[in-house]
Amino acid sequence: MNAVEPSGDPRRESSRRRTFAIISHPDAGKTTLTEKLLLYGGVLSAGAGAVKARQGQRNVTSDWMELERRRGISITSTVLQFTYRDRVLNLLDTPGHRDFCEDTYRVLAAVDAVVMVLDGSKGIEAQTRKLFEVCREREIPITTFINKWDRPARDPLELLDEIEDQLTLDPVPITWPVGDGDRFVGVINRNTGDFVRFVRTARGSSMAPEQIIAKYAAGDGDPTWVEAFESVELLDAAAPDFDQKRFEAGELSPVFYGSALTNFGVKLLLDAVIDLVPPPRPYFDVNNDLRSITSPFSAMVFKVQSNMNPAHRDYVAFLRVCSGRFERGMAVINGRTGKPFSTKYAHSLLGRDRNTVEEAWPGDVIGLVNAGDLRPGDAVYVDTPVEWPAIPSFAPNHFRMAFCADTSKAKQFRSGVRQLDSEGTVQVLYQPDYGQSRPILAAVGPMQFDVALYRLRHEFGAPAELSSTPWTTARRTETVSAETLKNLPGVALVERGDGELLALFESPYWLERVIVDKPELMLERLIGEG
Ligand code: G4P
After folding, report:
1. Which of 31, 32, 68 to mutate to test ligand 1, by most ligand atoms within 8 A of the CB atom?
2. Is 24 in the pocket of ligand 1 (CB under 6 A)?
3. Alpha-carbon distance 61 to 51, whole Å?
4. Any residues with CB less than 8 A from the CB of 211 and at least 6 apart, and which?
5. ∠ CA 106-285-112 to the nearest 5 degrees?
6. 3-state secondary structure of 91
7. Which of 152, 324, 400, 423 is the 20 to 30 Å CA partner of 472?
8. What is the pLDDT of residues 231-267, one digit of tens each?
């Protein structure tokens, strides 16, 4: 990694940072692209370890859970930092599986931009749309990478129409593919008019050499190239121009075509991340005031994770620095408890590898080991207090009652459940009559239950079992409405781990009836419902 000498000035340091995440439907190529970005960032050497276990290779970034290996999916998020040109890139990985969208939501609260990866033969898929909605809500700038162009792909113009129609996002192609599948030879860079010819390497194990050829000389009358050139002429006449302000507002997306597997177009994408993605923005606090980048140090906890390293049974809180300079060892305040704590064990993480972080700047992510009191959404600061708006929870639609299968482990069970709740592995709901011995685990997708049971048994020594429940839908309510709701059939009132009161309904039909019959009751929708 070519280290950049820090200047000591938060404004200058943050302007060097680009903090982003990659979102995609599973299998579109997020992991492969991440791996290739690391290759260009000099973190992975050519042909060396892969982000995902491939052909017997070890998994570098997320192999701490045996369950992940068994399932072959990436459940947990990691944070990767690397330098490219003179910029520091913070790439926050998002879980690949749809059941973990709550985790993704938290990660998206900590980034300044996303790269949306689409499969060139499929276009927009269900999970892309769901994640896009979150980006839209948060007005996150989106750069689009249309991947797998080394395979037969759909008409590139048709894919642009799909982005425009389905996402109401204006796509502006910055590159344009010449051929697809075996005939994919390169892209036209619409900014310069050059043709960038790619040279294949074995399975993309090293950076794809690029030959830049002035456009008129490149075609040689080849019909594939002529067709591409005609499309570019059409786009020049009809497509909107790239507009930085609209990009930063999340209304317009620059589009790149390529193939992560063969590295085609990866460098052009990375250059765009450096040139187009805005540097870290100041965060709004709970009163809607901006905390300036140059304010004293503050950070937002966006994720906590215990036992990342099974050998040490630790607890890591991931913080995005929002303002000022972080220095390892400094005493900071946990805004929720008001208690000071030391930050002696601050790390950056590349998968399991940990490096001690001596200092960090706005846009950076630090992992604080054994900062057990921190919860997602918490503010951490020095000098001037700050509180961040809550990171909303997703609407669960799977509910199971949990109980400890071995009564001698009741204590471990209770503390394990509390831990899973604070990490957001599942939401935990308590019914007044059952207390902590029969919590209801609530999830967006059923795989969260598998992870919860696995972790209760293996990390907390508390074998647990789940029983089914009749509930299918949850709404947020408050104490006055609760008085009426608790007397209605088919409704249960529960308290979520964070103190919110929820009403659970046995069917959406019944919920609709209650809404119509008793419009005075507070029954607020939760994010991602329906
Ligand atoms: P994900 O993280 O979004 O789920 O996708 P991932 O990168 O794991 O890629 C899913 C599959 O698509 C992998 O194949 C991967 O090699 C392939 N892939 C990714 N990018 C490209 C590309 O640009 N071109 C082509 N042709 N394939 C691509 P797999 O068969 O599941 O795994 P593997 O055996 O190839 O490792």
Report:
1. 32
2. yes
3. 6
4. 186, 196, 197, 199
5. 45
6. strand
7. 423
8. 999 999 888 899 999 999 999 999 999 999 998 999 9
Nearest-angstrom CA–CA distance, 364 and 91:
10
CA-based diameter of the chain, in Å?
79
pTM: 0.83
Copy the structure tokens of residue 96: 């690949």
The first and second tokens of residue 264, run together, are 């085609």
Look up residue 101 and give its DSSP letter. H
Closest Cα partner for 315 from 290, 341, 273, 345? Answer: 345
* Half-sphere exposure (Cβ direction) of 247: Cα atoms closer than 13 Å: 25
Helix (H) or strand (E) holding 449: helix 447-458
Task: Please report the pLDDT score of residue 214 as a whole number.
Answer: 63
Question: Hey, what are 360's tokens?
Answer: 């960090």
Ligand 1 pocket, residue 32 CB under 6 Å: yes
CA 305 to ligand 1 center in whole angstroms: 27
Q: What's the angle, vertex CA 38, arms to CA 34 and CA 43, rounded to 5?
A: 150
Residue identified by tokens 């769901």 is 130
Tokens of 527: 């994010």
Q: Are 507 and 490 in contact (CB under 8 A)?
A: yes
Instruction: Please name the residue whose Cα sits nearest to atom 35 of ligand 1.
Output: 54
**pLDDT per residue as tens digits for the range 345-395:** 777 655 455 667 888 999 999 888 877 688 888 999 999 999 999 887 778
Which of 23, 25, 27 should be mutated for ligand 1, with most atoms under 8 A from CB? 27
Our CA angle for 90, 91, 94, nearest 5°, is 145
Strands, sheet with 331-334, edge to edge from the N-terminal-most edge strand: 339-342, 331-334, 379-381, 298-306, 315-323, 365-369, 346-350, 353-356
Place of tokens 């019944």: 510
The owner of tokens 């030879």 is: 185
Residue 73 CA, closest ligand 1 atom number: 4
State phi, psi for 23 to the nearest 5 degrees.
Answer: -120, 145
242-to-15, 173, 218, 309, 411 alpha-carbon distances in Å: 22, 9, 25, 45, 58
